UniProtKB/TrEMBL annotation:
Superkingdom classification of source: Bacteria
This protein's record includes keyword Nucleotide-binding: no
Keywords: Membrane, Transmembrane, Transmembrane helix
Record-given protein name: DUF998 domain-containing protein
Organism: Isoptericola peretonis
Keyword Transmembrane helix: yes
Segments crossing the lipid bilayer: 20-43, 63-80, 92-110, 138-157, 169-189, 201-225
Length: 244
């Protein structure tokens, strides 16, 4: 007798799909608005008059960075809340902790500061177009990534199917964030000495825009999951039929 096929996954509810589309649309609109604000700032010669303007998209503590951090903090709060209310979902708490780590790294410049210290103490040298600072930052990202992955895998194996399913969506968001925060960041370090200011801005814009999109996607996934797993209100006593 042939083995029975596993049942197909149920499609996402219509309201969840609608919420996801709204979240993606809002993410792209906010990213476009901030990139446009940065471009207008540069075209208006803002770099010469105010080189550290908060509208400069690749500046520390910029409006773009604060918006991305706020989105990640809200996503972490939503996931932490569901970790408390859903059974068998420790991986959601792990995801919340990872997002908090990402925010702390951005605001406190952990990978830049520690990466510079690692490069200095280890005596790293330039290789493959990447300077010692870049290699130090890459090493720090590797350690943080390995620890985060170990925690996520351990909690994933202890979680139920609902929490596991949303984890795959969140992992996709990590891919977008990693491409922008690590991949494009390392590319910026490599190409900066060889490119003109306009090209350098494009690379910086791609990195910051990618981080904004990733933060928006994290928030979208967390919000959709929060809505989809909301507790159904218990029926009122009057609506419950009393057996004769």
């Amino acid at each position: 007798m042939p083995p029975a096929h596993a049942p197909a996954r149920a499609p996402l509810p219509r309201r969840t799909r609608r919420a996801a589309l709204v979240g993606v649309a809002c993410t792209l609109l906010v990213t476009l608005a901030l990139v446009t604000g940065d471009l207008l700032y540069r075209l208006d010669d803002g770099v010469a008059t105010d080189p550290s303007s908060p509208w400069k998209i690749d500046e520390d503590r910029s409006v773009a960075e604060l918006v991305a951090s706020a989105a990640l903090l809200v996503a972490a709060a939503l996931l932490a809340r569901r970790a408390r209310t859903l059974p068998q979902s420790p991986v959601l708490a792990a995801w919340a902790a990872v997002l908090l780590l990402v925010v702390a790294d951005d605001l406190l410049r952990i990978h830049e500061t520690v990466g510079g210290a690692v490069a200095s103490r280890a005596g790293l040298t330039e290789a493959f177009g990447l300077d010692p600072q870049g290699w130090g930052e890459l090493a720090v990202w590797g350690v943080l990534g390995a620890v985060s992955l170990a925690v996520l895998v351990a909690t994933f194996l202890r979680s139920g199917p609902t929490a596991r399913r949303v984890s795959w969506w969140l992992l996709g968001c990590v891919g977008v964030l990693g491409l922008a925060a690590v991949g494009v960041d390392m590319l910026a370090i490599v190409v900066e000495p060889f490119v003109a200011g306009d090209v350098s801005w494009v690379v910086a814009m791609l990195e910051s825009a990618g981080e904004l999109v990733a933060a928006g996607l994290f928030l979208t996934v967390a919000w959709c999951f929060h809505r989809a797993t909301a507790t159904v209100p218990a029926p009122s006593p009057e609506a419950v039929a009393v057996p004769a």
